[in-house]
Amino acid sequence: GSLIHLMTTRLRLAAHTLRRPRRAQHTLARAQHTLASLPARVRIYELGARDGLQNEQRIVDAATKIELIHRLARMGASSVETTSFVSARAVPQMADCEAVMAGVEQREGTDYPVLVLNLKGFERAKAAGARSIAVMAVPSVTFARKNNNCTPAETVERAATVAAAANAAGMRVRGYVSCALGCPFEGAMEPAAVADLAEGLQAAGCHEVCLADTIGTGTPGSMRALLLEVLPRVPSDQLAVHCHDTYGQALANIYEALQHGVSVIDSSVAGLGGCPFAGPGASGNVATEDVVYMLDGLGIESGVSFEQARHSRDNR
Fold this sequence. Notes:
Layout: H1 2-37, E1 43-46, H2 62-75, E2 79-80, E3 83-85, H3 97-103, E4 114-116, H4 119-127, E5 132-137, H5 141-148, H6 152-168, E6 172-177, H7 191-203, E7 208-213, H8 220-230, E8 239-243, H9 250-259, E9 264-267, H10 288-298, H11 306-314
Parallel strand pairs: 1-2, 1-9, 3-4, 4-5, 5-6, 6-7, 7-8, 8-9
């Protein structure tokens, strides 16, 4: 009996040892499949000059902003969000938007969008020479009421009005869905509600819809759930993600989005900035240099020089 038991044990060990290479091969195959599904190229949408600076307490002069914008463009970012045409009382840092636009020497092949929230802001941006704009919608009832004095549906209607005017003027329009993964007042957002707004923005004429984790509470799990809801309604080649690093989840969330075919990534040099209306938990956009380092490691082209991104960080 003991001999039979010994032989059986050895046979089981041998079988287990033989299975190990198969398991390793299966794991390797899955990893290779994941890498193959990632986009070959990603566009970096740089936010340092607008979202990065808008929350700074010390007012940065227009000349410094203009030099930063020039450095970010030379770094290789596809888009450099330049400023916002909003109330100077609400966002004092952006009060010099006209002066900044007048001073920027636009680099060929680089987009210089500006944020506008209403028709008045759009008209100012158009007069200042803007060629592309960004508008915003919010799925949170409380956030929309506190910051826009309207409902989530009305934020889409207002964005649609601006988008129509911009399209008529031959301008490109990006649409943000703010608080897409969490709200400072209501917590986690329902993916279906976010998808409704994303689809509404696309239907309104936005060439690109950006899902913004405004306060950085998202995780790869909630990002996956959101994308599974949004993607049947807005294709991946018209989506972008905007991740804050409040809880250190930004790169993981971006990697999750890459696996779903999203190929436009928002970032801010040195991780500057956050939403001034979202509360203290909103600080910290994902750093451009960290995103580029990850993309380089994955073999994904971005057009952005990691060394120049670090230089922009160290000399901002």
